[in-house]
TrEMBL record:
Assigned protein family: Belongs to the LysR transcriptional regulatory family.
HTH lysR-type domain mapped to chain residues: 17-62
MF (Gene Ontology): DNA binding; DNA-binding transcription factor activity
UniProt protein name: LysR family transcriptional regulator
Keywords: DNA-binding, Transcription, Transcription regulation
Length: 286
């Protein structure tokens, strides 16, 4: 039997089975008796059965309806069960996987862990470096994880990037560095913080600098902030970091107004998973 039943019509069958009266069914569904009669006529044709026989005591269901009423009720129960997933952090026992760069973990890692584990004490946490497992491609391929990093215009539309904060790029040197202003830094070497999987091929800040005639050729790309800080504390090198991340013993150099460089912190995940209750909770905590 090739059947394409409307859910409302299945509800009409159920109410007719319970009430045995077209007028009462119409009243319970907020419809007219004529509309209910039309529903029943259509159903009779679709199901090839009279469905209900009128008697002096009301409408009696046919054997077909008696034999299938449980199936109709099951269909309606299944429809009612379709709803958004409930999420309760305190009872969640799954794995929460987050990718971020080393600087983020050094600056915010423990704070984020304590904030999450306070509300979701039974979850298992996996905090990984952004480039440690080819996170970019794994997210694109559908991995159930989130990534915390800077806005990346090269990510495909299948990845959602939700802003949760902003930072400012600053240059920094050791306290007693001989350079007195930003322009004089051109005479000194630099090392760059590298995030594998994010800025492998280009550094947006360097492109901005070149556009104003400030050419930087870094001596090294380093994936360890502590190592960069140690080099700068013990040499005439300068570094590039984010406001709030200038290490003790160093000072920041004021950038020209035309070089003000804001960074958008984003949480990335598969666009199809953006509204998942777990990801919405993680975004709120970030």
């Amino acid at each position: 039997m090739d059947i394409n039943l409307d859910i409302q019509n299945i509800l009409v069958i159920k109410r007719m089975y319970e009430l045995r009266n077209v007028g009462l069914v119409a009243e319970s569904l907020g419809k007219t008796s004529g509309a209910i009669s039309k529903n029943l006529s259509k159903l009779k044709t679709q199901l090839n059965d009279p469905l209900f026989i009128q008697t002096k005591h009301g409408f009696e269901p046919t054997t077909f309806v008696e034999n299938n009423i449980s199936n109709f009720e099951q269909i309606l129960s299944s429809i009612e069960a379709i709803k958004h997933q409930d999420f309760s952090p305190e009872s969640y026992r799954g794995t929460i996987k987050i990718y971020a760069n080393t600087l983020f973990w050094e600056r915010f890692g423990s704070k984020l862990y304590f904030a999450l584990s306070k509300e979701a004490p039974n979850a298992h946490y996996s905090f990984l470096r952004w480039g440690s497992s080819n996170a970019r491609n794994q997210l694109i391929d559908g991995e159930e994880a989130i990534a915390v990093h800077y806005f990346d215009e090269t990510l495909p539309q299948s990845i959602s990037q939700m802003d949760f904060g902003k930072g400012k790029v600053v240059f920094f040197v050791r306290e007693d560095h001989p350079a007195k202003d930003f322009e004089s830094l051109a005479n000194y070497p630099t090392v760059l913080f590298k995030t594998p999987g994010w800025n492998d091929n280009k550094y947006p800040i360097l492109e901005r600098l070149r556009n104003i005639g400030f050419e930087i050729n870094p001596r090294a790309d380093i994936d360890h902030p502590a190592m960069i800080h140690d080099i700068i504390l013990n040499s005439d090198y300068f570094g590039i970091t984010l406001s709030g991340s200038v290490p003790e013993g160093c000072r920041s150099m004021e950038l020209p107004e035309k070089l003000t460089f804001d960074v958008r912190y984003v949480m990335s995940c598969r666009r199809s998973q953006k509204e998942a209750p777990l990801n919405q909770w993680l975004f709120q905590k970030l």
